[in-house]
Design a protein that fits this description.
The protein is mainly beta and 302 residues long. The chain has 2 domains: 80-160 and 284-302, SH3 Domains (SH3 type barrels), CATH 2.30.30; 163-277, Sandwich (Immunoglobulin-like), CATH 2.60.40. It has one helix at 5-26, and strands at residues 85-89, 93-97, 106-111, 115-121, 127-132, 139-142, 146-147, 163-164, 174-180, 183-188, 198-209, 212-220, 224-228, 238-245, 248-249, 253-254, 276-277.
């Protein structure tokens, strides 16, 4: 039997509609969702912060401290003291004396070109102790009266020497010593030497000049004299007086020296050299006595 397809089409649609209706009944209903806008709060938005980039890691290494080394203090090397220095007299005639200054007694007269050996000097080098060729003993000359090699005279050793001692007269008695600022006045009583023997009075003074103690020997024909003695030295000034006659010197008398008021109290005693040849004390045999008179004439030296 042949089925008519056109009759089946309505039946198919009816069955399909029934099935769809049954599905809608069995499915639960979904509640409607409200479409209201969500409530916005005032919560602040955090500010954007820059994310730090990783920095390069520095590896610290311990730097050793420099080793402290002792600094060498350089001190001037003292030049060796020169031995006898050969020279010769460079003037027509030169006086050579018992002490380093024109106030000392005359001992010898040297002629030009006489060879000498320089054996010592004064602290400032202005006078030198020499031994003349063919002469028996040494004596003092002004340095500028000698022709010397090209040397520093201060490298010659410092020297004082001795004075010839005479027993004829004592040293003078002091009459007074006073100070007026930088000036010291010394007065004494005349000893009464004979005219033939009289050679005045020798004062050896160590005084302060420009902050240094200077040796200042003077010969005085009289009984009073002045010295300049400033403040500022590290040791006290000092002086002594002798009677001077043609054969030599008396023993000395110390002068009570008034120290400068601007100086501090000194707790040191000046070291003063022994000045003369005394029997039994530093006696030098065959020491010639000075001549009775210092020669006059054409001497060009002190």
């Amino acid at each position: 039997m042949k089925i008519n397809k056109s009759l089946l089409r309505p039946v198919f649609f009816a069955i399909l509609s029934s099935l769809l209706f049954a599905c809608n009944l069995s499915s639960p209903s979904t509640p409607a969702v409200a479409e209201s806008a969500p409530e916005v709060s005032d919560t602040p938005i955090p500010a954007a912060t820059a994310t730090p980039e990783p920095s390069a890691t520095v590896t610290l290494t311990e730097t050793p401290l420099p080793t402290e080394t002792a600094t060498e203090t350089l001190t001037p090397t003292a030049l060796p003291t020169l031995g006898p220095v050969e020279g010769k007299v460079n003037v027509e005639r030169a006086n050579c004396r018992y002490g380093p200054g024109p106030g000392y007694l005359y001992e010898y007269g040297f002629v030009q070109d006489l060879p000498v050996e320089v054996l010592g000097r004064t602290p400032n080098g202005e006078w030198v102790f020499v031994q003349g060729l063919w002469y028996q003993s040494g004596c003092w000359m002004k340095t500028e009266l000698l022709a010397l090699p090209d040397i520093d005279i201060m490298r010659v050793g410092e020297y004082y020497g001795v004075l010839p001692y005479s027993e004829y007269y004592p040293p003078p008695q002091l009459a007074g010593v006073s100070r007026e600022e930088d000036t010291v006045t010394v007065a004494w009583i005349d000893v009464g030497m004979t005219e033939d023997k009289y050679r005045g009075y020798l004062i050896e003074a160590w005084v302060c000049i420009d902050g240094q103690i200077e040796f200042s020997p003077v010969n005085i024909d009289g009984t009073i004299t002045n010295f300049t003695d400033e403040a500022g030295c590290s040791s006290p000034s000092y002086a002594r007086i002798f009677s001077s006659e043609k054969h030599g010197y008396s023993y000395w008398r110390e002068i009570p020296w008034p120290q400068h008021p601007d100086n501090p109290e000194f707790d040191v005693t000046p070291v003063i050299p022994t000045p003369y040849i005394h029997p039994g004390e530093n006696m030098v045999e065959n020491t010639p006595l000075p001549p009775t008179d210092e020669p006059s004439g054409n001497s060009t030296s002190p």
